[in-house]
Amino acid sequence: MSKVDVLPQVAAFLQRRHGCFIDGQWVVPEGATSPVLNPATGETIAQVADASVELVERAVLSARKAHEARVWSGLRPADRERILLRFTALVEAHGEELAQLETLCQGKSINMARMLDVGATVEFMRYMSGWATKIEGQALDVSIPLPEGARYTAFARREPVGVVAGIVPWNFPLMITTWKLMPALATGCTVVIKPSPETPLTALRLAELAIEAGIPAGVFNLVTGAGNVGQALASHQKIDKVSFTGSTAVGKIVGGVAVQNMTRFALELGGKNPMIILADADIDKAVQGALLGGLLNNGQVCAAASRFYVHRSRYDDFVAGLAAAVSTMSIGAGMDTAAAVNPLVSRKQQQSVLKHIETAKQEGARVVTGGELVESAGFYVQPTVLADVNHDMAVARAEVFGPVLSVIPFDDEDQAIAMANDSVYGLAASLWTNDLTKAMNLVPRIEAGTVWVNAHVLLDPNMPFGGVKQSGMGREFGRAVVEAYTEIKSVCIAH
Ligand code: NAD
Question: What is the dihedral sign for C-alpha 80, 89, 230, 256?
Fold first, then answer.
């Protein structure tokens, strides 16, 4: 065991009475609070405010006022970029503190929190900062005939969409907060963020770093609480765009309430992502890819590989290789740098994953390794490989969102593609083959927002990310997200 010591500033932050961040200040309500638990021990480590409807109202009006006063969108793009780069540098400088806060409330590995939750977030922030100076419109030739002899020059400019509500899940709290926040800030929008009640700590700290960086008061507001707070935000008439990441069930509600006000919305939802391993694939590489793609963040990744379609000729090799690797993984707290598998985020998530495993067993799946609860006050589940899974079993269809890998054989590629596409979800998929012709012919047939070949779950800020079917609507990252946070205004000048 190699346990990381909690930084004094992290310990002090946990002790604070946390409020909501509105108009550049903490507002600590008198009312109810909710505990934040450490998934490794089940103990309460912090208390966070449950925002009232009145506080949500204040946060939205603060963002609205800042938007209308153009305190942010009115800055020179180069000034916005400079402030955002300063914000990014502050996040990097406070990286260890943020990584520890993330691990302590989410349960994830501190190694990963440092590398991905902070490291990749900083890269994403730097990438998005640069977009502030690269927003462009279009010059338009027009043929307006009236009045006779008149001449017109027209152009389309991209303007910030306005006030953005960002609703965030618990699996990558800091990272997904910045996936909402940074495109909004780069394009000149103002924001109200609502983190998940399980994992609000890094977003709270981020609000302070934003002010320190020079982002004006009112541009970045934050309210904490459960789903009712998210719903009050998403349905508010003075919100111009809702960017939601979370479950498909809640995404449908959020989309529904947004439509009532004609609020633009983007939904990044669940996934049941296939990994298709063809007969010619390198099985050792596929096993390594399955470990990363399936068990990153203990399987609590929307794009995680969770159903593995393997050509029957390679099925036994793949199952044996995967089981051998998974069965030796050490299980422990996220703050233990030697632990490869960590607790799930909550007791509820642990129970839900165990129930999926139990149902799979009842339906005839064979547990090759794992499959049990780990006796502990924390929320652990053994990493699990299920073989002899039938494509019709619940475990092959429902999003488990935990360390459960289901392996299914196939006989020909058409069958593999048909099973991969036979899902309500369409977030991500991967294809494992060394045959370039096969890869190029099969990629267009896979119904998913992202398809990797000989890789899985690797994202890049310049590569649009999002789902098809019930995995969501809209794209994050790249030029696509800049377009999604701006609205086109046509300007026509007579001369
Ligand atoms: P969730 O849907 O339960 O909650 C997400 C957020 O919505 C939380 O902040 C929650 O408090 C809030 N919320 C709950 N009810 C609401 C309502 N009626 N109106 C508005 N907001 C409401 O999801 P979760 O359990 O936090 O996260 C896990 C889910 O997120 C999984 O399904 C996973 O696939 C998905 N996810 C998707 C992506 C992606 O990019 N596609 C990324 C990460 C997670």
Answer: positive
CB distance 226 to ligand 1 below 6 Å: yes
Cα-to-centroid distance, 279 and ligand 1 (Å): 37
pLDDT digits (tens, 9 = 90+) for 193-207: 999 999 999 999 999
Residue 421 corresponds to which tokens in the numbers above? 């596409």
pLDDT per residue as tens digits for the range 252-283:
999 999 999 999 999 999 999 999 999 999 99
245 Cα–ligand 1 center, Å: 5
**Does residue 177 have its Cβ closer than 6 Å to ligand 1?**
no
The whole-model pTM stands at: 0.98
239 CB within 6 A, ligand 1: no
Task: Report the separation in Å between the CA atom of 165 and the middle of ligand 1, taken as the mean of its atom positions.
Answer: 14
Q: Are 223 and 119 in contact (CB under 8 A)?
A: no
Enumerate the β-bridge partners of residue 492: 154
- Those residues with Cβ within 8 angstroms of residue 217's Cβ, 6 or more apart along the chain or in another chain: 23, 24, 25, 62, 66, 211
- For the chain, list the domains and their CATH numbers: 8-269+472-494 (3.40.605.10), 273-460 (3.40.309.10)
Ranges assigned E (strand) in 176-334: 190-194, 220-222, 241-245, 264-268, 273-277, 305-311
